[in-house]
Each structure stands twice: as structure tokens, then as C-alpha cells.
């Protein structure tokens, strides 16, 4: 087994190109596992990516926040995602945006309406109607998970045209988003992770 030392570079001060390599190493070393798994979509898989193993670490959150913030359109007024995988991601982007003097609020979309109080699906600050929101996701398979967030946001009168993910498993998500008129960007494909895994951790 070989070891990659990219993650020893400073996450706070590395340029975005180096930061992307750092995040790739973190995902491969901490989040990517091979074996027999059943995904949330019900599909069988020979590998699994648990993004929270990275997005809930200090260095992973900062790397995700810096990289995804750099991908947001200039007119983005909020970031949002479906609980639970997207929670640390939207929070990281929002915190980093404040440090960059570009404050962008975060919204968390419940899978079911809150059972008390306002019984809301969306948690976070109130936005004006037609505010432009970008949906963030950790791992995209079929695309249906993030689509739930898109639908909730649109039902609330917000505008959503773009989904950005950390990893695309390339199992139909991109094609699904295209079929419903959504733009889709991703930091990494599953091929990126598997190539790095074979090169550095096997």
C-alpha cells in the first residue's frame, strides 16, 4: 500500500487546483469503500461513498466550502440541500462565503415536514420570492435525492436551475437532470476516485 501526502498541504491557503487534489485524497482515503452495498436508491453496488466522513471533518469542510463557493454563479442568493448529506456542505459553503465577503445563506430541506411549529420543509433564513438558489449534494446516483430539494424550493417560490455535487457516480443522474432542464456540475466523477484509489491506496 502506498500513501499520498497531498492532504498534508494547508487547506486554508492552498490554491484551488491544489485544494481539489487535497479533497480528492480525503474522499478516497476516508469516504470511499469497496465491498457489497445497497444504496439509498435500492441499487446494489460494489463500492460506497460516505461523503460525511469528509464533509464533517474540519479540513474536509473547509476544502468543500472553498471549492464549491468558487463554482457558484455570481448571482447565487442561497445554497440548499436535502438533509442529511448536504447539511455540512451547505453550512461549509455559507461560512466560507462570509470569510470571502460574499455572504450566502444556507437552507436545509427536510425529507418530511416538521411535525410542530410552522411545519416547514425548509430550514433557514427567509428569502424573497424568485431568489436564485443552487442545490448542493454530496454523491449523485440517479439524481432523485437532490430533485426532492429542487421541488421543495420551487414550491416555496424560489428559483433553482443548477445542482452541484461532490461526486457523480455516473449512473443516470446527469442525464436525469438534463431531461428536466436542470444544469449539473460535479467536482469529481467516480472514475476520478477509483483511479486515485488504485494508484495510491491499493
Explain what the structure shows.
By secondary structure, this protein is α/β, with parallel strands linked by helices. It has a single domain, classed as 3-Layer(aba) Sandwich (Rossmann fold). The chain contains 7 helices and 8 strands, in the order αββααβαβββαβαβα. The strands form 2 sheets. The chain has a 6-stranded mixed beta sheet with strand order 5-4-3-6-7-8, sandwiched between helices. Strands 1-2 form a two-stranded antiparallel sheet. Strand 7, helix 6 and strand 8 form a beta-alpha-beta unit. The N terminus is likely disordered.
Write a compact overview of the structure shown.
By secondary structure, the protein is of the alpha/beta class. The protein has helices at 16-31, 52-55, 58-71, 87-99, 144-155, 173-179, 190-200; strands at 32-38, 44-49, 78-82, 106-109, 122-123, 132-140, 159-168, 183-189. Helix 1 packs across helix 7 and helix 3 (58-71) packs across helix 4.
